[in-house]
Amino acid sequence: MMRLWGRKSSINVQKVLWCLAELGLQEGKDFERIDAGLHFGINRTPEFLALNPNGLVPTLQDGDLVLWESNTILRYLVRQYDKLKRFPVDTTSQYQSEKWMDWQLGTMWPPLRVAFLGLTRIPEADRDYALIKSSYQEADALLALLDQTLEKHVYCSGEQFSVGDIPLALCVSRWLLLEQTFPDKTGPRSQLSNIDRWMRQIELETKYKVVAQKELNIVK
């Protein structure tokens, strides 16, 4: 049975869990999930480090294959298990989707991550609120690029939900929740109507609710 290491509150684990749900794969039946990371530990043990020397989650083991890096895991799962043809397979859609996956990881998430970790993982006495606010506002400005694309397309890569929508939507959910929870610390968010429409559509038409959290998992 396929094994996935990672806690449900991790954005990168949520990517994988959401993808598995879209593919019709069920925890306990098609794969085993093992809590790891933060208070669960495990990820610094010799056994785990032998699988993933980074000591991070998620880590996926499927037979003899062991993968880490969440977006790589998504690519593998879609190629290996999309028997239901849930995701588009034409070249244009595939690489438009891949483009947004790389943008999420390399451009969008780094500034949002600073704000997210600053407000949910770093003790209040140690927080750099100026950095948190500037990072959040940088991420906010970047999301205008996604909003422009969604003015022309239903989803990030065209008219059909793609794997690229998964990491993007999970970032956007944190962008929304941070401003709702800490409005005086993040500053106002831009009102991006196309992203709002896209998120509503994702909630209605996908398995997003399998992993969605309506409140931040704040470590005190």
Summarize the structure.
By secondary structure, this protein is of the alpha+beta class. It contains eight helices and four strands.
Sum up the structure in keywords:
4-stranded mixed sheet; 54% helix; Glutathione S-transferase Yfyf (Class Pi), Chain A, domain 2; 220 residues; 4 strands; alpha+beta; single chain; 2 domains; Glutaredoxin
Question: What do these coordinates show?
Answer:
It is a single chain. With 220 residues, this protein is an alpha+beta fold. Strand 3 and strand 4 form a beta hairpin. The chain has a four-stranded mixed β-sheet with strand order 2-1-3-4, covered by helices on one side. The mean pLDDT is 95. The protein contains eight helices and four strands. The chain has two domains: 80 residues, Glutaredoxin (3-Layer(aba) Sandwich); 119 residues, Glutathione S-transferase Yfyf (Class Pi), Chain A, domain 2.
Give the assembly state of these chains. single chain
Helix proportion: 40-55%
Span between N and C termini? 36 Å
Q: Could you say which overall geometry the principal axes of the C-alpha atoms support? A: globular
Strand content: 5-15%
Low-confidence stretches: none
Question: C-alpha Rg, in Å?
Answer: 17 Å
CATH-assigned fold name of the largest domain = Glutathione S-transferase Yfyf (Class Pi), Chain A, domain 2
The major pleated sheet works out as: 4 strands, mixed
Overall number of domains: 2
**CATH class value of the largest domain:** Mainly Alpha
Order the strands across the largest sheet as they lie in space. Answer: 2-1-3-4
Strand element count? 4
- Tally of individual helices: 8
CATH architecture assignment name of the largest domain = Up-down Bundle
Structural category is alpha+beta
Mean pLDDT over the residues? 95
